[in-house]
Amino acid sequence: MKRSGTQKGxxxxxxxxxxxxxxxxxxxxxxxxxxxxxxxxxKTVEPTKAEEPPMSKPAPDLQVLLTELLRREKxxxxxxxxxxxxAKAVExxxxxxxxxxxxxxxxxxxxxxxxxxxxxxxxxxLTRLTDVYQNMKPKDAAALFETMDPSFAAGFLSxxxxxxxxxxxxxxxxxxxxxxxxxxxxxxxxxxxx
Length: 194
Fold this sequence. Notes:
By secondary structure, the chain is mainly α. It has helices at about 5-10, 15-40, 60-135, 140-145, 150-160, 160-170, 175-185.
């Protein structure tokens, strides 16, 4: 059967429906883009920082080397600090030694002066006492020398002039005179010959 013209009137253009569907899809896409892209476009663009390259893990050998270098650096710093402390201690000790040495030298000089004064005073006293003994009558001096220790008496007789010493020795008992003479003769026996 043939279709009549009325059927022709009913035919709708198919291109129109496809165009409407395409239009609706494009509108939907535009709305979605507008909703999602709007806030993104509204944000101000901040300058980006230059990103640092991510730290790559060093190779195990390099890690061991780095660890050993850090340990060595730490030991060297400790050794350096210890050496600085030792240097300070040595400097303090050196200063203390120099101070003590100066004090000892001063004390030695003071002692030397004191000994010189004491020796001079002792010599003055012995000279004065020797003069007293030699100015005594030989008989009185002999009685005094008889009671003295022989080495003590020999010291005084050695300091007297020969004639005064002879007078005192003549007044002594023969035993005392002999003992004092032996002491006087042996006084310089141990002295070096040259």
